[in-house]
Description:
Shape: elongated
CATH topology: Arp2/3 complex 21 kDa subunit ARPC3
Strand content: under 5%
Number of strands: 0
Number of helices: 7
Structural class: mainly alpha
Radius of gyration: 20 Å
Helix content: over 70%
Amino acid sequence: MGLLSDIEHFERLSSERQEFLMAYLVAIASLLSVVDSWIPKPLPLAKIGLANIVTLVLVMRSRYRLSFVVAFFRVVVSHVLGGTLFTFGFWLSLAGSVFSALVMSGVHRIGGEWLSVYGISLWGGWAHALAQGVVAGLFLGFNRGVILYVAFLMIIGIGTSLALGWIVQNYLDTETEIDKNHQDEKSNATHDPEEKTSAL
């Protein structure tokens, strides 16, 4: 089975395969987070949010608990690798990632039938910015600077959220097509021996 198939059938996997899949997803998200940190930023601590691609994929496949677990541990792992564990940036990232996963999961559970991946991603981006604003306010005080910072993050978050939604949608479409073709090949391979037998 492919990655997307494993995600969709997560509860049916063995405990060993579940642990491997979680570790694999955390590793991918952590790598994306590190790459994201290398990209020039318009403001300090402002990131595109590449790691949220993994979270969004999980949410769109209704793996809400798994999305929360991956969001939490990828922040821990990426900040351990960067040597910034328990810093101000760590708490900002943790709050934004976890709250974003929770909000996207809740929105998808309630309105997943009529809300597209772009809408889910927008909700996640806004939730991420809001959670970071709360943490920044707790550390620095809820002053005008923090409010303007959050407003700026929510504005640029529209563009980044739509871009991430586009990436996830294309990934889901591609993986779904690959899985479908794979199933068709297996089905044809199963029926071919029967056709040969009947021909004889």
